[in-house]
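Morning, I've got a small favour to ask if you have a moment. I've been staring at a protein lately and its backbone has me curious. You're getting the sequence in one-letter code plus the fold written as tokens. I've dropped the whole record in just underneath, so have a look:
=====
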Amino acid sequence: MTTTTDSAGRSDLGQNDRTVGLVRLVIGLAQGIALYLLVRASEGEGVTWSSRFPETFGPLVLVALFLPPPLLAGVGRLRWPTLAIWGAVAAAALAFLAWHDVARQAGDAGRQMTFPLFAFSAAALFIAHHLIVPADRERKLIASFPAYFDAAWMAGVQLVLSIAFAGAFWLLLFLGAALFNIIGLSFLGDLIEEGWFSLPLTGLAFATAVHLTDVRDGLIRGIRTVALMLLSWLLLVLTVLVGGFLAALPFTGLEGLWETGSATALVLSAAGGLIILINAAYQDGRADNLPPAVLRVAVRVASVLLTPLVLIAFWGLSLRIGQHGLTPDRIIAVACALVGLAYAIGYGLGAIIPLIRKGSPWMKALEMTNIVTAVLVVAVILALFTPLADPARLSVADQVARLESGKVAPDKFDYAFLQNSSGKSGRAALASLAASDDADVAARAREAQAGIFTADTPADEEFKPTIATLPGAPALPEVFFQPVADDDARRECLAEGDCLATVGEAIGFDANTVLLVQSYRVTIYGEDAEFGTYIPLGTYVPVRCGDETAAPDARDLLRQGKLKAGYADNLPDLDTGGQRQSPLSPAAPFACPPAR
């Protein structure tokens, strides 16, 4: 069967506009229904399906969100077999990325996909799709650069317009609902609030916009031409600013840049802006699309400026990594800098070679650089969000190596990072440290496993809570005055009179307990002999059941001798002068206990 394509790259395989439009509407409707079902699965009180099976729910969400757009764009532009294979591969890749993002997290509750996964997977999907479409159109493994340029920039404009159309559609719906509400009819407003109506309708609106912008190909090309023209002239502005910045560095030094704490992000953002604007000016590289002479000079200068920007980013990263080791954010920054370096080398050669070899095409190296770097970006993203180069795993390995080599002292090591911020890799490393032959490291690791993070900064060493006892009462243990967590109630005892305390035995509680009494609560602490500290066991909130507005000051109750242990269950109740209060966990809502 003979296959032809039109100027917009639409295939002639019997995919007329009506068929293509119908298929797109079906895809949009299916996306809306899928998202509605997933939203329903995440709603409700208690344990939901989404929280019970996060490794399944996450992949379904990512596939439902991100797979339909390339399918909508591919219908009519890709051959049906190519579209089917690409759809299956994209779905599998998205599902695996989401599964790994959730599965690597520690704990049984609260695991969900992270924001970087959404941002980077969307970028990888867009790039990969527009590597495939031109290649399938030209029936070659590597298509011509003008085909890549045309497909990617057209799709970018189409995506922006489709999102704008869907947004405008919903603005009109809200306006209509408001008009009907004025005359006492709320049916439209009620429908908009229903997920079974709003989500499928949004999918249909977006699919409609994709089809309309695809049919009106000439209109989209016109909009793209205007956008490229405006962006290309912005290149002059950014080139002057970046050039001025780099020229001033020898006189100002880099200290001010390092002090911002975001030097790498700033210079990489500037490099990214230059790359986009250089491409806006270069366009598809054809002779009839050459920009004016002033823009050609700006393209060459900007291409050369990329190298010092990327080198500054690497310099900043090397300093931070040398001082503090790897973290997930720094690993992602290194990956971005490597991509930037690939662009800088290719664009720099494109700017310099024509000056050395007379007659060489203007910035021709840019074309292959863009193609190769696009593949590199997809590969890097896949590596970062799979076990191959998982930033959390690499960061944990580096941080532990620094500790074991002596680069970081045990009292300066960030155990909280292993426990709370690096998923299962961090928890496994922390368990290994807890079994270390180094007693200090092992003790601190076990504290971290228990959620206790000792702060060893000078400010913490100087801090001592102001806690008083009643006259004649037993003295408090000295170690009780050593706060062990930033959210510990003892941190609130700043001034004389803020807090009173009593040993538990004095009012009928178990030995080795201390009750910290503040105006609005009483916190019971138990001794942790292994670590030589006191940890909170529960919180009592003295209220007068039946008249909560008359809640007494707990400190007055202690002074009056009205605080004492009541029932002897797992933790005793607190008798506050006739009103028994059950112990609450620090995170539990304050409530009056049921009558006994």
Observations:
- Residues 145-182 form the longest helix (38 residues).
- Strands lie at 467-468, 499-503, 513-517, 522-528, 533-540, 563-565, 574-576, 580-581.
- The first strand starts at residue 467 and ends at 468.
